[in-house]
Amino acid sequence: MVLLHNIATYMESLPLEGGPWNVILSLFDVFFRALPGMLSADVSDMADAFRIIACVLKIPGLSQQKSILEPFSKIISFTIQNCPFKLGHLMDLCLLCNRAFTKERDRLLLPRAAIFELVQALKFKNVLPDENLILLVQLVVLDAGGTLNPTNIASDLFGTGYDPNSVISTNAADSMKHHLADCIEFISDLHTISKVKSNMKGGSSVALNEDTLGGLMKAGIAQYVALEFTRSSTRDFRAHTRYLPWLYHPPSSIQQGPKEFTDCIAHIRMLSWLLLGSLTHSAMTQSQSSILCQPIPIDASSHIVDHVLVILGGFAEQSKQSVLHMSSLFHTFILCQLWTMYCEQMALMNPPQSEAHAIASVTILDFWGRITPGVLQLLSHSKVLAEMVNLHFLSLIEALQECNSTVLSKLFPMWAPVLHCYHSQLPGQMQVRLQNCQNWIPPVQTKEELAYNSTVLLQWLKRLQFKMGQIEMQSSAATQFYTV
């Protein structure tokens, strides 16, 4: 490792003009091909190797020695599999490779090496150090135009100054595009977070929390997919038509059996993660990004309603079938929260007098105008169900209040009687919570408050991300422990 440090320091001191670079490049080709065989799996730092590669990628005429890229890619793969690294260093290598070569295959070789390791980890075919896994997700999301919502621990990994508006393309998102189906499978799999937890490699200097790693990864991949869906909607190919064919074809009232109920749960979970990714992007970039993240068209609202109504209509009968069925009400109310805030964000991103603003605002009211009767029907089944639904509904109202929802004041007169549908007098604690909601004064949206609201939204999304992950993990483990 001392040798690598000395070579890196020497190379950084050399002027790039002149010199027998052809000979030096040939020697480096031989050196880097032999290097992996000399490294042991317990190597703790490959930063000097990355420094040398960065120097070599700046050498004039490197495009004539493109065979050197293969050993470079193997060094990157070895580092990702075994050693901690800095995200900025990997981004620099991808950027320099893009600049040094003209052919697409050569330009994308190094980012593709990094993406290959990420995809293998997403398929659980290999196990990467926990930090490296998060950094690779961040590499892709940054290149797509977003950034992760960091936990207190993960923020130390990303460093400071990573502004999505100023990050230069590393081609990581383009390389990941070929694996979009794998990303969707990762998000939609109920057992993903349990698998991530059981496969944690450890060795992290900052000790990523085993209960948050899976949720953070899912949210990051969901943000990337949401951005890709948004881009595809501006082209002839609409990704959600290919990858979410069920979105516009919810079960009819005749088809609503056990299979359709289970399928709807899966679809609702998938939509929730996509909306979480989209809202995280909006909040992290404070809607100043070059892309407006809108993976699900507003006109899909009626179809989302149909999916929600399948759960509300079948929950009384189906909830006793399994833990997954029991959790369906959690997923459903979470989706309702996210869709409400998603439509609000779409409205806020457009001028108040614009048609887009009006459509998004009307969509929320229409959405709840159709959902509320379904809630009332579920309340009428039994006292136990009524208490359960009331808790979910009250939590939803509190969540919208926390996020400074602009439509809550319009919906509250319709919702307050729902809570009293079964109980003429609510239990003491619920009554206090409801009274706090009734006393809430809706905010006036000003430019100064928008930045504050983004921070509030991020905190809410962070907790919701954790809650969604916990519910999925508990469902995967077939335990019946849930809290509202």
Major sheet attributes: none
Question: What's the end-to-end separation, in Å?
Answer: 53 Å
Return the average pLDDT rounded to an integer: 84
Residue share in helix: 55-70%
Structural class: mainly alpha
Q: Approximately what portion of the residues adopt beta-strand conformation?
A: under 5%
The global form is elongated
Instruction: Count all strands and give the number.
Output: 0
Low-pLDDT ranges: 203-207, 479-484
Count of helical stretches: 23
- Rg, alpha carbons: 25 Å
Secondary-structure element order, N to C: HHHHHHHHHHHHHHHHHHHHHHH
- How is the quaternary structure best described? single chain
Structural topology:
Elements: H1 2-13, H2 21-38, H3 47-57, H4 69-82, H5 87-100, H6 104-107, H7 109-122, H8 130-144, H9 155-158, H10 172-176, H11 180-188, H12 192-198, H13 213-232, H14 239-243, H15 258-285, H16 301-318, H17 323-326, H18 328-348, H19 355-379, H20 383-402, H21 408-419, H22 428-438, H23 447-476
Task: Please give a quick description of this structure.
The chain has 23 helices and no strands. 66% of the residues lie in helices and 0% in strands.
